[in-house]
Structures are given as structure tokens and as C-alpha cells.
Amino acid sequence: MRPVKVGLLGLGVVGGGTWAVLTGNAEEIARRAGRRIEVVAAAVRDIEKARRLVGDAIAITSDGMALVRDPDIEIVVELIGGDTQAFEWVMEAIRQGKHVVTANKALLARHGNEIFAAAHAQGVMVAFEAAVAGGIPIVKAIREGLTANHIQWLAGIINGTTNFILSEMRVRGVSFEQALADAQRLGYAEADPTFDIEGVDAAHKLTLLASLAFGIPVQFDKAYIEGIANLAQEDIAHAERLGYRIKLLGITKRRPEGIELRVHPALIPAERLLANVEGAMNAVMISGDMVGATLYYGQGAGALPTASSVVADLVDMTRLLAADPEHRVPLLAFQPDAMADTPILAMAAVSSSYYLRLRVEDRPGVLADLARILADSGISIGSMFQEPHGENAADIIFLSHEALEGDIDRAIAKIQTLSFVKSKVTRLRVEHLS
Amino acid sequence: MRPVKVGLLGLGVVGGGTWAVLTGNAEEIARRAGRRIEVVAAAVRDIEKARRLVGDAIAITSDGMALVRDPDIEIVVELIGGDTQAFEWVMEAIRQGKHVVTANKALLARHGNEIFAAAHAQGVMVAFEAAVAGGIPIVKAIREGLTANHIQWLAGIINGTTNFILSEMRVRGVSFEQALADAQRLGYAEADPTFDIEGVDAAHKLTLLASLAFGIPVQFDKAYIEGIANLAQEDIAHAERLGYRIKLLGITKRRPEGIELRVHPALIPAERLLANVEGAMNAVMISGDMVGATLYYGQGAGALPTASSVVADLVDMTRLLAADPEHRVPLLAFQPDAMADTPILAMAAVSSSYYLRLRVEDRPGVLADLARILADSGISIGSMFQEPHGENAADIIFLSHEALEGDIDRAIAKIQTLSFVKSKVTRLRVEHLS
């Protein structure tokens, strides 16, 4: 069969990786796909730089719009990132009847519904394995591998930068600031790390995973997002002493009233596999009603792992290019006419266990007062320990049983008014993942 | 669209689970697949028992051959196990132009080449996600998710019974016999556990994984198989002290001279995720040249997890029933005309690190003599420790660097002739998985 003709938007880190995979493993890919996948053109900002990478083998342009309109190109691979120019070019590619592969989570989390609707109307495919968890085939696992299940929940370490920082804070005992500086020096964090450390990148990915798991539209604006910049070293140490590790998790859960959609640091039991995912690695745990818990682990970023997923999408597409749309897997795992409008729950309605830490005057009756407030709010305590701080103060740490976040927040507001409480109450969520 | 009509061979554990998944999650599955999947008939040994399970909803027969010839049935799901009757019925189903889903690793490991050739000739699909690692979508991950990669190696815990036994031996310090008895009492091991504890079941699965990873024919007869029945509690304890855990691994590796294909107990570093897979769970680690190492974890057996994979195959098939064969994923990941005849390596040519334990007389010069023999065989020692045993004897444990198995075996043969060596040398392989 004749080769499939692909146009690349972008030849940066992931674009260069995609070029390297498609050329380096051309034989092995053709052994599987049954035909070759050829990059015929690329649109880039720096034409000289692109020429040094790919030589004269393909057409290079600085005009992305011209590339997506090139009648010779069957699949457009969008790897420029961002959500303005990428959005324009992807929408035009779809209007031109081209299939699209993208690694752009920000684009899909913010404009996914529009893009998927346009693709459906035009009868083209949009694939995005590389947008979530890099080289891990997690989109395929949810969309196809677990298709027999009601997905109940999933929880993932889906941002390598923050996982690297949290690993460093735990293993080396350094502060957040120090760990971030190390991550930047080693290339695990960007010069402006805001999107990573504030949880925005993880929330982009989680939004897509929730759509795939539950058949709901992409709703990034309803995701709760809390990053790791305020995490204190002492909470990581306390967590460890209690048998937990702190990870930045993206969590989405189906509950009778709606769907939880949240990114935040969480204590997880140290014996769980997810707690043992260290450094810049990613992992996603998914629970289905039939299969139980499954877990998927690998590199969540980097040129070649991400390109591995881009090319897997290209091979899938290559097989189905000439097939009727009915033979394809639905873009968001569910048939377009079977999407649900299940509401996303407000955080006050979210259910979790909690870790609370506060500093108090060390005098009789303090614990009784605190326990009374928690009990009155319907919050039951699983364990507690106390650590002297100087002569007259102590730090108290509570681990609660499962409670509504609204209840815990009301209890904390009351505790905060007590005269013997000398600090802001630190509140972290605890996820048992079972 | 009209429902797809499925016939079940077998309504036992996995057959009953498949019935439960297809009926219990019918709505969710149809939301994804776009059409219903209906079981219209089942062939069983005990018709009364089957009627109690499924009522009068479907046709029940004791004649499997009649079922696979029923012109109304589009997909045959084989869940009876074994490789004689199952082989006959599956081959007849293929001759009848029916697609086949099976969970039967023994059947495919022993007759896979014949079955896949017949399916290719007839233009039908044969899917077997449930045959390896139960509910984990590992076939799909290799065949599609990692399709851009040269797979370099994979190593898996793919037998839950033996992993449960090894977990018990380590955590509770019991003997193999005690752990096996517990596993039988708890339903993790069968009354006749031979296939599991001798590694045959794991080798069946590994054989299939190797074909998917490397594009080679199914070659169960060339797999090296060593079970866990001879594992001593003291080796598990020594391993732990050295920072390792012992797991029964299925390992297959691409090397310049050929492919390693082997099932045996192995020491793996305790900090690896694979070392932390406990109880009856399964996990497979796969290394690709582009993606690096990825890992897949979940329940490897049980009615519902296995049925989850059976139904995932049914949904995939449902989409592609009316499509041209070119739109399908190749049965064994590679195009039939692109299969390789790479040889399977003999164990003497396999490369690994080794753990050696032996009892010696405790007198000067013993260690020097042992070290000399190892050095003369080209084996370099990574670490060693010695433990007194009574007044005049000591146990010596060596960990070697990577060596050829032929070299280590020649060295052991020499050591075994030394007059101060009081025991048979225990030799276990060490896998660093990196």
C-alpha cells in the first residue's frame, strides 16, 4: 500500500521526537501497520533550525495555515502547544477534512468540545494519546481496554515536574523552593514553572481523563485545582511517620450526586504502588466495577516517550483512514449521542479523609475542645498524635475518617476562632485508593 | 444498529463472568460500542446449572460443535479451557467464518500458529486479551499502545497463585508447603496446583507476549520453565537482606543473537514497582526503545476481571465486523507477512546476574578458592556475605555481575567438586529490570 502522508505542525521537542521515531523505527512500524507513515511537510518558526534537523527530505514552511490546507496531507499532527494558533490551525485542518493527532492538553481541555464536535460533523478522527501521561497508553486503556466497565474512579500522578519535586522533598528533606530549583537545574521544571506547580497542567489532563472515563463533556473550568507551592516539609515528614506519602493527584470519581474532578496534594498509604512512583514518572490508577483496580506507569513527558504515543495514534489512524466512521473508536470513548450531562460536584460536596495540623497552647482541655468541635460537625477521628513545640506549645495532627469537605471546612472555621489555637490549620486530603 | 450475536462455549467461572458483565453493564457498553452485544446461545456440560444462571433467555446446548455451526452466531467466545475440545471447536468456528474470542492461553500457546493461520486464511478475527494477565489490557498495550517501539524486553508477574505464595513466604516467613496450603484454602490455588507452581501457566502467557512483542511465531516448546516448588525460605530471607525480593517472572528479551524466553524465580531490587506487586495481583513491565519502561498492573484472574477483557475484545470486534480485514489490527501485532524467524536462545546463551548460596567448611582459603574459580570462568562478583553455621561451617552468598548462564553453570560444576563444599550450590537469577 502507498505511504500515509503526514504534516507536522511544530518540530520542537515533541515534533523532533516524532520525526526521530518515524524515521528511526520506520521498518518496525511498517511491519505492524502494513504501510509506511511519511512526514511530507512541517510548519515551523525557525526554518533554518528545522532544515538542520530533517535535511531536504520534506517541505518546510513557516505558514501553518498553508500546511493544513495542503491537499496532499492526510493527517495533521499538532505539536506547537498553546491554545490560540493551535486552535485555529486544528479547526482549519478539520474543516479541510484532515484527521488530527495532537499532544496538546491545554488545547483540548479548553476547546475540546468544539474541536470534537467539528471533527464529528466532518467525519474525521482526532486522537490525543500523547496529551495525557506521555508515553503511557492510558487513553487507549480507558477508551478500549476497560470498555466493559463502569469506571468508578481514577487517580493519577500526571505531572512529572511536581512528582519530582515531591520525591526530592521527601527523600532529601529539602524545602519546596530548594526542590524546585533543583528540578529547574536538571531540566524537570521550566523557567516559569507556574502551570506545573499550580496544578494547571495536571488539571488539563484530568479533564480529558474524566471525559473518557464517564462520557461527559470536557469541563476544565469546573475542575478544582490546588498546587504544591504551599506544601511544608514538616507535613511530608509527618505523613511519612503516619505511613503515608504526599503526591499531587488528579482525581475523578463517579458518585451518586455527580462527578468529583479535582487536582490537589494528597496523602496516600505508603504501601500503595502509586505512593512508590518516584521522580518524574507518571502513573494512573483506574477502578472499574468489573476489573477492579488497574494501574499504568511510565514516562509522562520527554521527546521520545511522547512521540511514542503520537505515532501509536498515527498507526491506529492509518488502519482506519479508508474505513467508515462506524468502524472507529469514538473520540471520547462514548458515542457522541450517548454523552451524559452528569454534574461536576462542588468541593463542599466532595468526600475524602483529612489530615489536619495545628499548633496549640499546651494546656489541659485543649484536645477535648478540639475533639468536641470535630464530633459536632460529624467528623470522626481515625488517629491523632501530638508533638511538643517549645515549652508551652504543641503541634497536633489529626487523621479523620471520610467526611464531606463542607463539614470539615466548617469545623476548621470554628477551630480557627479558639483562643488556644496559635496557627492556621493546615488541611490536606487523604486518599486511600481502595 | 442491530445487536451483535454471540455464542458462548462454556458458562463456568469466566463464562458466567462474561454473562454477568454483558448483562450487568449492557447500557454502559452500548453507550461506548454504539450497538448491543447479545449472547444468544451457550454450549455447556451441565444444562440444568446453566439454566439456573441464565434462565430461559438464551438457547442452551451441550453440543459445542452445533453452536459453532449455528448460522445465527457471528462471534464465538471460547471459555472452556484445555486444548483438545477447545481446539476442535475453535478451528471449526473459524472454518465457519466466525470470529473468535478466547481466554485460553494453553490453547494458543500450543496451537496458536495453526489457529492464527486458519483465521488469516478465512479473514476472521481471533482476540485473546483475557488469555494474558486477566483484566489488564496488556495485549492491547503491546499490540497498539507501544506500536511505535522496538520492544527491547518485558518481564511480568503473570501468575497470581505463585505470586500469592511468594508474598506469604516473604511476609509471614512460612515455607513453600505452608504457603501453598494457605493458597489452596483461600481459593488462590487449585487442588492440583502443578500448572501454576511449576511455571507452565506463566510460560503459556509469556509465549504469547513474546510473539506480540517481537513478531515471532508462538513457540511454547522452546520456553525455559522453572517453578517455585524448590524455593527455600532462607533464600527469600537472604534476598530481602540484600535489598531484593523473589518473584516468579516471565521474561523475554531481544538480544543480538536471538530472543530469551524464560520463566523462573528471580531476585529483583526491592524498590522496583514490580517487586511491590503483592498477593494474587499481576503486573507486566515492558521496555521499548522510544517509550522507555512502562508497567501495567491489575487482577490477573477471577471471573469479572477476566470477563472485562473478554468483553473489551467483543467491543473491538463489534466495531470491525463489517470492515475490510485491512482495517483491523493484526492478530499477533505484526502483519502476517512480516513475521520474523529470530531464534529462541538456549539457556546457556542467556545473560543474567546470579545469586549463589553454598555451605562450606569454615577454614582459611575457602573464599580464595571460590573466588578463583569464578574469576577463571569470567564471572565478576558484585557482593558477598558469609554467615556462620554451627562451629565449623558457614553459608556463603555471592551476587554476580551479568554473566552467561553457560559460564556460571560451568563454574558451579567446578565448585561442586571442591572437598570443602558441603551443600549443593543454590543458584537463582537476579534481574535488575533496567
Automatic annotation (TrEMBL), chains A, B:
<feature type="domain" description="ACT">
    <location>
        <begin position="355"/>
        <end position="430"/>
    </location>
</feature>
<keyword id="KW-0521">NADP</keyword>
<dbReference type="GO" id="GO:0009088">
    <property type="term" value="P:threonine biosynthetic process"/>
</dbReference>
<dbReference type="InterPro" id="IPR005106">
    <property type="entry name" value="Asp/hSer_DH_NAD-bd"/>
</dbReference>
<keyword id="KW-0560">Oxidoreductase</keyword>
<dbReference type="GO" id="GO:0050661">
    <property type="term" value="F:NADP binding"/>
</dbReference>
<dbReference type="GO" id="GO:0009086">
    <property type="term" value="P:methionine biosynthetic process"/>
</dbReference>
<dbReference type="Pfam" id="PF01842">
    <property type="entry name" value="ACT"/>
</dbReference>
<keyword id="KW-0028">Amino-acid biosynthesis</keyword>
<dbReference type="InterPro" id="IPR019811">
    <property type="entry name" value="HDH_CS"/>
</dbReference>
<comment type="similarity">
    <text>Belongs to the homoserine dehydrogenase family.</text>
</comment>
<feature type="active site" description="Proton donor">
    <location>
        <position position="205"/>
    </location>
</feature>
<protein>
    <recommendedName>
        <fullName>Homoserine dehydrogenase</fullName>
        <ecNumber>1.1.1.3</ecNumber>
    </recommendedName>
</protein>
<dbReference type="Pfam" id="PF03447">
    <property type="entry name" value="NAD_binding_3"/>
</dbReference>
<comment type="pathway">
    <text>Amino-acid biosynthesis; L-methionine biosynthesis via de novo pathway; L-homoserine from L-aspartate: step 3/3.</text>
</comment>
<dbReference type="InterPro" id="IPR001342">
    <property type="entry name" value="HDH_cat"/>
</dbReference>
<dbReference type="InterPro" id="IPR036291">
    <property type="entry name" value="NAD(P)-bd_dom_sf"/>
</dbReference>
<dbReference type="GO" id="GO:0004412">
    <property type="term" value="F:homoserine dehydrogenase activity"/>
</dbReference>
<feature type="binding site">
    <location>
        <position position="105"/>
    </location>
    <ligand>
        <name>NADPH</name>
    </ligand>
</feature>
<keyword id="KW-0791">Threonine biosynthesis</keyword>
<dbReference type="InterPro" id="IPR045865">
    <property type="entry name" value="ACT-like_dom_sf"/>
</dbReference>
<comment type="pathway">
    <text>Amino-acid biosynthesis; L-threonine biosynthesis; L-threonine from L-aspartate: step 3/5.</text>
</comment>
<dbReference type="InterPro" id="IPR016204">
    <property type="entry name" value="HDH"/>
</dbReference>
<keyword id="KW-0486">Methionine biosynthesis</keyword>
<feature type="binding site">
    <location>
        <begin position="9"/>
        <end position="16"/>
    </location>
    <ligand>
        <name>NADP(+)</name>
    </ligand>
</feature>
<feature type="binding site">
    <location>
        <position position="190"/>
    </location>
    <ligand>
        <name>L-homoserine</name>
    </ligand>
</feature>
<dbReference type="Pfam" id="PF00742">
    <property type="entry name" value="Homoserine_dh"/>
</dbReference>
<dbReference type="InterPro" id="IPR002912">
    <property type="entry name" value="ACT_dom"/>
</dbReference>
